[in-house]
Specification:
Elements lengths: L9 H13 L3 E2 L2 H9 L7 E2 L2 E2 L4 H13 L5 E2 L3 H6 L4 H11 L4 E3 L10 E3 L3 H18 L2 H15 L3 H7 L6
Parallel strand pairs: 1-2, 3-4
Antiparallel strand pairs: 5-6
Helix pairs in contact: 1-3, 5-6, 5-7
Length: 173
């Protein structure tokens, strides 16, 4: 339900991969496809699977499907979040604002420029606030302080951040 352009249900991924196989497409590793393109040896029915961001859910949900169907895939993973094992801050901030039952939130004493009451009534307002929260964290907080900052935000938004973090949805592999 949250951010369907960025996240896909496991059942949807499985159905799409099965359709690819049932349609008779031959899935190649990315390097093989690039070599075929360079040699001008591309034929109908070839496909390449690339997956952006390397979310933990790719490992948990997509990898078993890819392995079962013997489909190669290339997963792009950002090194910063993989190495730090921190949740992806701007996406988690958007989720917390989306998940909140509140229609507005006060961020008094949180950060300069964010001290006002903020409406959460529409996606554009939530996204502007999420951008401000992420910008504040990126520009003024050390990596080790960012999760504590989001915990305070989650508390004010009345969202149980621990249950979100346990699922590792916003972590990369």
């Amino acid at each position: 339900h949250f951010h369907p352009i960025l996240f896909m249900r496991a059942a949807t991924f499985r159905a799409r991969m099965q359709r690819l196989v049932e349609a008779g497409h031959r899935v190649l590793p990315l390097a093989d496809a690039v070599a075929r393109l360079a040699a001008r040896k591309v034929e109908p029915g070839l496909a390449v699977i690339t997956i952006d961001d390397g979310w933990h859910g790719i490992y948990r949900h997509a990898w078993p499907v890819l392995r079962e169907l013997a489909l190669p895939a290339t997963v792009y993973v950002t090194s910063y979040y993989s190495e730090s094992q921190l949740p992806v801050l701007n996406v988690l901030a958007r989720y917390l604002l989306w998940k909140s039952p509140r229609t507005e939130v006060s961020l008094a004493n949180i950060a300069a420029g964010l001290d006002a009451r903020h409406a959460l009534s529409d996606r554009a307002a939530r996204n502007r606030l999420a951008d401000g929260l992420a910008r504040h964290a990126d520009e003024t907080l050390l990596p080790g302080e960012r999760l504590g900052f989001l915990r305070e935000i989650a508390s004010r938004l009345e969202v149980d951040i621990d249950s979100v973090l346990e699922r590792r949805t916003f972590h990369l592999m």
